[in-house]
Amino acid sequence: MKYLHRLSGITTAFCLMIILFITSVEAVIYWTPGYFEQEYTKYNVLDRLPPMTMEDLLDVTSQMMDYLKGRRQDLHVITTMGGEQREFFNEREIAHMEDVQALFLKAIFIRRVCLGLSAVLLLFMAFTRAWMKRVLWPSLCAGTGLFFGAVTVLALVISANFTKYFVLFHHIFFTNDLWILNPDTDMLINIVPEGFFMDTAGRIALLFGFLSLLLFGICLALTMKHMKKERG
């Protein structure tokens, strides 16, 4: 039973870390006020597009982000460009964003599964109070440390050649080449250049790192407190 409790604790930690990572992604791209406007200004995105206003571009972006969360049925977004009404995204971009939406919704589903599994494992450990403090916090510490260590190594590897691993990411998660866009015909690649993805990845890494260290610190503090109480 002792080893089962430890496995449960480590599994809970892994689930919590996955939850924190997916939430960090959501927080950066959905909850950061003015983030897209800031990035569009930084990379002079409007200069890459047919004449349009920042207000219209942000409206397009808002509808695109709603689509990724399943709040819109399609990505046929009408806006004003070059003085005329037209669809912002073409068929190739829409097809690619359907794949992106599927990936995003899967991530949200995984987060829900992790939340449910964490709750079940914590309840299981709570019913065996003899091991609750002795195993739970050390196991959470171990699981959090292992997961964070692995992610840190992966982040360092990716940061050494972001472009290479950005392309590899697309090869792994997409089964077609719709993600290969042409800046002369496709608006999507112009509004989110590689620099945008680098900035976003950096923000996600910082937020995830902070939340992970906070979780680890809480687990470590409670572990040490319990050990001190047992010795005393």
Automatic annotation (TrEMBL):
Transmembrane segments: 109-128, 135-158, 204-224
This protein's UniProt keywords: Membrane, Transmembrane, Transmembrane helix
InterPro entries in the cross-refs: Lit (IPR010178)
Pfam family, one: Lit
Domain of life: Bacteria
Protein name: TIGR01906 family membrane protein
Organism: Clostridium porci
